[in-house]
């Protein structure tokens, strides 16, 4: 299949094809296990030709991770004209659906964020920053109190939501609705308690 | 310094010394970066002698991570005779103080838990399971509602608490008390909302 197809794709289409193959392969392996030999083989081209489109293995990894992060960012961007509660729900369900559908890719990136793959730390970090900003945007839209620790709390809430979604039994009937409701509740209760710490008893 | 000291330590003391050096070194590097050559050098023994006490690099890594996990587990075990609120506070402040004081070791292990170091996944996993059981124990002691998702929620709460502690500005005056209060609030609000999802508006 390779010969003719190779000449028919434009450079942009070829790059897109290779990145797409990389994204598919991240579904069952970590970034470290992503072999450019295997990517080239699946595309029906030589490894040498792959490196005609990408400067290095690192460059290819970065392109794959950037594509995954762009999709994640797009999936979690609500229509800005929605009213606050609907906006927040759209953000949360976008987050839940993306992570459920791309659980393995998400884990591969979270692993990266935790420091195991320095080649993509900046891309993953910037994506997490975008998401954290969106959390704070939602919090402001809902009229919840601003607080000095809001940025930190937003990131901690994201860690909570990630862990919940990644481990949720998504195959059970109704599980996705229940998960979205749980994450919505946590958003309100966690970010809403910043101005009233110490709820167990007065300290 | 090495010669005499080598003969004076018992095998158990020597193993303890080497594990202690490994723990210290995890303060500024990941498990993958922990060089047994460097450990042996710091102990003033040969690399060969290190492997007299540990079967392999993997065996040494496991001993170091087991020691770190044992300390973490011990630091977060409250006196069982405390009344519920005091028990929960002791658990949370043990968690906060340990993670603040061993931030880098903790990150090195979290990285491990996220999948980057298969040699210790079982040890870190068992430790996280112990902690999650303790969260559920605290929740029962406080008389909070039991729920089908409690185990999952406990793990998500731990991810929240980890992220908050690791990023908290610990050097600010009063920051540690504020952090403990914040984590306590989150414990009550997150685990208390399992029986009332959907707090934004009725669904």
Automatic annotation (TrEMBL), chains A, B:
Keywords: DNA-binding, Transcription, Transcription regulation. The keyword Cytoplasm does not apply. Signal peptide: none annotated. Gene3D superfamilies: Tetracycline Repressor, domain 2. Residues 35-54 bind DNA. The keyword Nucleotide-binding does not apply. Residues 12-72 form the HTH tetR-type domain. One of its GO terms (molecular function) is DNA-binding transcription factor activity. PANTHER family: HTH-TYPE TRANSCRIPTIONAL REGULATOR RUTR, TRANSCRIPTIONAL REGULATORY PROTEIN (PROBABLY TETR-FAMILY)-RELATED. This is TetR family transcriptional regulator. It comes from Streptomyces nigrescens.
